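Curious: why these numbers?
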Amino acid sequence: MQQTLEALDTTLKTYLNPDQSNSVKRAYFFAEQAHFGQLRRSGEAYVTHPLAVAGILADMHMDHQSLIAAMLHDVIEDTGIPKSAIGEQFGSAVAELVDGVSKLTQMEFESLEEKQAENFQKMALAMARDIRVILVKLADRLHNMRTLGVLQTDKARRIARETLDIYAPIAMRLGMNNVRMEFEDLGFSALYPMRARRIDAARRNARGHRKELVEKIRHQIETVLEQEGHEVEVIGREKHLYSIYKKMKSKRKSFSEIMDIYAFRIIVDSVDTCYRVLGCIHSLYKPVPGEFKDYIAIPKANGYQSLHTVLMGMHGVPIEIQIRTREMEDMANNGIAAHWLYKSNGQSANGSHARAREWVQGLLEMQQRAGNSLEFIENVKIDLFPDEIYVFTPKGRILELPRGATAVDFAYAVHTDVGNSCVACRINRRLAPLSEPLQSGQTVEILTAAGARPNPSWFNYAVTAKARSNIRHYLKHQTRDDSVALGRRLLDRALASFDSGLGQLPAGQLQDYLTRHGYAELDDMLDEIARGNRLPTITAQQLLGELVADQAQTAGETQPVAIRGTEGFMLTYAKCCHPIPGDPIEGYLSSEKGVVVHRERCKNLNDMRGNSDRLVALRWDESVTGEYAVDLRIEVENRRGMIAVIATRINSMGVNIEKISTEDKDYQFTYVDLEMLVHNRIHLARIMKRLRTINAVRKVARIKN
């Protein structure tokens, strides 16, 4: 223990003054006394944990207040020492930091998810006051992940999942690449130990085969750059476990295909040299068109800067190259934490820090608009996984948005008021729909109108957390009187189409309906209709269906609503199970998609059954028409031209094929997956029967989920 404290003290003396170093040691002795008698699961004294957290921050050269907070981060929560006592001993700034990192232990929560969400919400508010809160929290989580092995498997898996879902993306958002990679590898090993071991063994094996070629490429690069008079450091990069796993999974590639790419990082002395070195590298190997990215001129959202290029080396080997300065390298690895390192040297490192503050300010806005902590954390998750595009305002300002973002997202990124009053947009000076996904390099102009309001349909294509939380906030906070009046008009109009009206419904039976569906009064249901949580046509059909239902029908049952596919309300057919006329069906009421129609035995619908007030009893109308998507899997012998034979047979029946793909089962058989449009189950049965008459077809089955 003493040796570890001495090692920390040695690190601190390299960049802190003696008074600051002594105050960190004083915090250690304070924590040791406070945690006296407490042990970790591993059997070690509890104080080893805060000491290790402080050591992680010291390696990042964080300031003394962050280190003191790291030493004391569990004191309020675990020892009963109040925040005021820490403030008296170490100052109010440290006390605020410690309080921000501490969990909410005094509050009761309905579920574990709600507890985690509330804790994160509290931490986000503390981050807005002092960004160092998240750095202490990340270091705390990193040491917990390193010592995960002593916990029970289910608890270790839960912590690992939370780390991969929230803390690794936060580390990436703050540019802390080293922390992010360690989070991902440790989380991956805890969640999927067998997969991690297999990939690690394969990587070690591949390392031996690649060693000679890696060294040869590195030597060539160094020689060429030395001849041009550049002093550089060339480092071979190796993909970490989780990134290999993610690429294998998302790109459906084998391990050998992913490891075929050789990656190098070139560290230089200045920005000017970065571009000069790029020219030298492109003269050594041929660059791959479309693979050059300049993150120095346009940094990533987390402040990351580098030049990226892909070259075709000898024997057709792809080579990934990153070129950056030493400062950019520190920023890439430590992100916002590097701000304190460069600040202490009197240099400016505001890019990463300013962007982090901007992000935290956005979190604060979202938190104020979110209905509850669970809604807030869902918004944060959306915001943490951006694959960025860069678009321009008419005045030339660059905005970063996630891939798939639309003009609605752009409008809210400019300003909340611009988003709320948006009515149309111009993309590259042409009028375009608000739902059109934006591409990098486009210039976007938003047209606004006084009195315009957010449209609920924007939910279908808005992807950024800021846009979605603002739209939801606006719709949720319309005045209740307006909502009730609007809901009444919508329900009356729906009832009128069935030759009825609210005034014609028997009061007693209407009250029974409200009670069964959990409403204290009619206004509550009308309010829900206005906010899009209930659909007026469905409510009207249920009301009239229940009121004319047979008296012997048991209380609580509802008449199924007949659907024809041409209703006046919003109807979506679930893509997970592709229901078609003739299938037993049930609906789920979504405030964003209307009624989502599922097959009765759909696995996803089973997951939703806990929220029974949103389930809608449905049946197909006898006069239903139209075409409906369905998925088929056909197992065929590996013969040339089989896909053409299958496609010809289907087209001969006048059926449209929407998608077609193949997957080898083994050397003898192949799966052909089709998505086609059919009228109903009878039509589908006829098609399947015709397909089974093809000699090489072994099996035809409908894909259920």
About this structure: The CA atoms of residues 173 and 359 lie 9 Å apart. Residues 354-476 form a domain with the Ubiquitin-like (UB roll) fold (CATH 3.10.20.30). The chain has five domains: 2-146, 201-344, 354-476, 497-620, 628-702.
